[in-house]
Write a structure and sequence with these properties.
Malonyl-ACP_OMT, methyltransferase activity, methyltransferase, Rossmann fold, Methyltransferase, globular
Length: about 250
């Protein structure tokens, strides 16, 4: 029986979009509300748990907020950039007191393996924290994409992980205990173009191994029409991001 994980995501496409998003993050007008939200949540958790790590690995923190906070606690920090850091390979060290991973774990083919590698990279009693958009996110965009494709829908938005699955995967990876929290973040948009731009800024555009064909002109027209039908009285469309935070102890 083949136990090789299915290849859902293209690592090449993921790496390219993460690097593009990292480059876009340096622009003053780039959207950063998701990474800011996740970083603030992680910082609050580290403070609440009163962690005093000597060593830490931080992946995906474009804002540097988590890195700066851990620096302030006196931690020696290794930094991994999404697109360069391979979650499906063993980490370069095995004695981190804290590992923080932002955004990227929702798009890993072998998530059980990635979690096992994360656990193995922790020191005794070390803490792993990962945060990323999960199942329930982008419900408006999913409906728009289905309408745009018409009678021949294509997979344009990748599958996402929900809280029960995340908790089960952490347990399967061998963590001593784990907590999975979620909260919703609603964002209001006047245009479909701005929604897509924000997703690009956060590296959340499609990266499936089997990509979908570009929208035709007719498809783009249907997409705009579907967006317009979702407008509220003020002319804006509400998109929802369901933010997952995984916390686990070795």
């Amino acid at each position: 029986m083949d136990k090789t994980p299915p290849i859902i995501f293209s690592r090449r496409h993921c790496a390219a979009k993460w690097r593009r998003a990292y480059g876009r993050s340096k622009s003053s007008d780039a959207a950063s509300f998701l990474i800011d939200e996740l970083a603030d949540d992680v910082i609050e958790r580290i403070g609440f748990m009163q962690l005093q790590p000597k060593t830490a690995l931080v992946v995906g923190d474009w804002s540097d907020a988590v890195t700066n906070f851990l620096n302030g606690l006196g931690a020696q920090i290794a930094v991994g950039q999404l697109g360069d850091f391979n979650e499906e390979l063993p980490a370069p060290s095995s004695d981190y007191d804290v590992i923080v991973h932002l955004m990227g774990l929702g798009m890993v083919n072998d998530l059980p393996g990635a979690l096992i590698h994360a656990r193995n990279a922790l020191a005794k009693n070390g803490v792993f924290i990962a945060a990323f958009p999960g199942a329930g996110s982008l419900s408006a965009l999913r409906n728009i994409a289905l309408t745009a494709d018409g009678d021949r829908p294509s997979p344009r938005i990748h599958p996402m992980i929900d809280s029960p699955a995340a908790s089960a995967l952490l347990q399967r990876a061998g963590f001593g205990r784990q907590v999975v929290d979620s909260h919703s973040l609603s964002v209001r948009y006047r245009s479909l173009e701005q929604l897509v731009s924000d997703l690009r800024d956060h590296g959340l555009t499609a990266s499936l191994e089997r990509g979908s064909p570009p929208f035709t002109k007719a498809g783009l027209k249907r997409a705009q029409g579907a967006f317009d039908t979702l407008r509220d009285d003020d002319g804006k469309v509400t998109e929802t991001f369901e933010m997952l935070t995984l916390t686990a102890w070795k």
